[in-house]
Structures are given as C-alpha cells and as structure tokens.
Amino acid sequence: MQLGMIGLGKMGGNMATRLMRGGHQIVAYDRSPDAVKANVANGATGAESLKDLVQKLKAPRAVWVMLPHGKPTDDTINELAALMSPGDIIIDGANSKFTDDVRRAAELAKKNIQYMDAGTSGGVWGLQNGYCLMVGGERKTFDHLEPIFKTLAPENGYAYMGLHGAGHFVKMIHNGVEYAMMQAYAEGFDIMKASDYKLDVARIADLWMQGSVVRSWLLELSAAALKENPELKDIKPYVNDSGEGRWTVESAVNMAVPAPTITAALFARFASRQTDSYSMRYLNALRNQFGGHQIVK
C-alpha cells in the first residue's frame, strides 16, 4: 500500500522503515529536512510540505500522523483536512487522549474524511520487534488498512478495539499499567540496593527473566540498563510523564474505579521532581513540634 507518514522521529522514522521493508510505498514529511533525507535514503518519497505530501499520494489517500499529542497533532490534522478529499483517511498513531479522537472523528466526518486512532507500543525496539497496535475507528476502514497494521506488528500484534477513541483508550490503560509495573520494579530494586547483602542487582534482573513469575520485557530492559550502569551514575532522579498515566487516573476517577497502584505510581513521578518539597519540610517541622525530633537543616 501507499501511505503518507508525518513525523519521522524515533517512532515515525522506524515505522516508515519497517513498512518499506515490508513492500509498502512511503511518502515522508517532517519539519526537519534531514529527517526527510534520511527516509528518502531508505527508499521513501520525500515531501517538502503537507500540501506536497498530499499531492504525491494517490486517492483514496491514507496519512499516518506520528507527532506529540495535543496542539501539534491537532494543527497537523486540521491542515491535512483542508488539503484532503472525501474518502481519504487520517490515522493518529501517537499518544493522543481518546476524547480528542471522538472530537476529531466527528469534525472530519463532516468532510467525509475517515479517522482512525492507533495506539502504538514498541518504542525504539519496534523496528526490530514490531509494534503492538490497538486500533479504533470504523471497522471497514480498519479492514482497508489492515496490510499496514500487519506489516508494522509482530504476529498477532494488532487488533481492532472498537469505534473512535477505543484504540487510544486501550493504549492509555496500557501505559497506566506500565507506570505501576515500573514503579514496583524500581521500589524492589531500591530495597535490594539498600540492603547489607551487597547484591548484584544486574544479575538478579537477569535471573528473574529465567522462568520467574515477574519476568517481563521491562525487566529485560532493566537487566540491560543495570549491566551498563549498576549504580545508575549521572542519572538525575527526575521522572517525566507524558500524559497517559494522568488520563488513566482521571478516567478511573470519572468511572469510580479504584486504581490505587497506578495512582501511586503517577504521584511518585511527581514527587521525583520536587528538589525542595514544602510538604517534606512541613513534616520535619511538625515532628519537631510534637516529639522534639531533630530538624535536619
């Protein structure tokens, strides 16, 4: 199939390469001319603008947008909608909020442009291993695009989730679970590192991959990271979040579903960013008031 790919970063560029290796034709665009040149070197047709990209695609066109969620994606989709024709398809494969998908699908439907949301997991390893795809939108559009999904994913690694927003909703929950798993591993390894046993945490991470009930790809990545840097030197204890954890907790609150583990993992990330926490200073002062405990200054 022919596909337009917008956004050629760590994910989009590798996805374009995997698709071309699978025999698909890619028309590639990015704000960075160097990123476009790199994809052209891999076999893509380069585009100088969104208008140029649309003109180089045959109708009915399909364009995959792989940009940061929010304004960058909204602005790009709005510009594309003004350039595309009835029957064309826009796919958002980044980590957009599922409610944005519902809104976009309704807006694009007025122009008879199809919209699909494709929750995409696989990170920088997706080129080699394939991408897990959770897809929402019209079933007939999913069926039309299935050759694309099949090439991007490993065996049994893609599925239709339901109507607009379902793909990104499932991907949001996926990332919320990921937050909790990562936090549990981090706490466990922290306890082992603090013990008197002088444990080889890199060896333990690798050991747990051999038949243990807690084995996972995240643990495999932990083993690789700890072998390279057991003390995690020069890594600042500051952890960002990209939105999906917040949206998972927000959805849990809205639906009155208890999610204490995911919520705690999200708040742990917030705590990592406080270099001078007022609440911790408050606790120190309060302990001194009721118990005369020493204040560390």
Q: What would you call the shape?
A: globular
Strand percentage, roughly?
Answer: 5-15%
Which value, in Å, is the CA radius of gyration? Answer: 23 Å
Spans where pLDDT lies below 50 across 5 or more residues: none
Give the number of helices. Answer: 13
* C-alpha end-to-end distance: 65 Å
- Structural class by helix and strand composition: alpha/beta
Q: Calculate the mean pLDDT score and round it.
A: 95
Order of helices and strands: EHEHEHEHEHEHEHEHHHHHH
Labels describing this entry:
8 strands; 297 residues; alpha/beta
Task: Please outline the helices and strands.
Layout: E1 2-6, H1 12-21, E2 25-29, H2 33-41, E3 45-46, H3 50-55, E4 62-65, H4 71-83, E5 89-92, H5 98-109, E6 114-121, H6 126-129, E7 132-136, H7 139-152, E8 158-162, H8 166-194, H9 201-207, H10 217-228, H11 244-254, H12 260-272, H13 278-291
Parallel strand pairs: 1-2, 1-4, 2-3, 4-5, 5-6, 7-8
Antiparallel strand pairs: 6-7
Helix pairs in contact: 8-11, 8-12, 9-10
Summarize the structure.
With 297 residues, this protein is of the alpha/beta class.
Provide structural commentary.
- The protein has an 8-stranded mixed beta sheet, with helices on both faces.
- The radius of gyration is 23 Å and the shape is globular.
- The protein starts with a strand and ends in a 6-residue tail after the last helix.
- It has 13 helices and 8 strands.
- By secondary structure, the protein is α/β, with parallel strands linked by helices.
